[in-house]
Specification:
The chain is low in regular secondary structure. The protein has one domain. Helix content is 0%, strand content 8%. It contains no helices and two strands. It binds zinc ion (ZN) (2 copies).
Length: 50
């Protein structure tokens, strides 16, 4: 996956492990680090999606 703003490859969010971590209810975690995208751009962080 690539950042939609700078087209650099995004990397897996370390906080939610790319949205593979789940809450007690089995839902996806709401991750403020990556805005629940599961990925991070080194420049734009979780704001790599348009
Ligand atoms: Zn970017
Ligand atoms: Zn995250």
């Amino acid at each position: 996956m690539k950042c939609e703003k700078c087209f650099k490859p995004v990397h897996t969010c370390p906080d939610c492990k790319g949205q593979t971590a789940t809450s007690l209810l089995g839902d996806r975690l709401t991750c403020s680090t990556c805005r629940s995208t599961g990925s991070l751009c080194s420049e734009h962080g979780g704001h790599w999606k348009r």
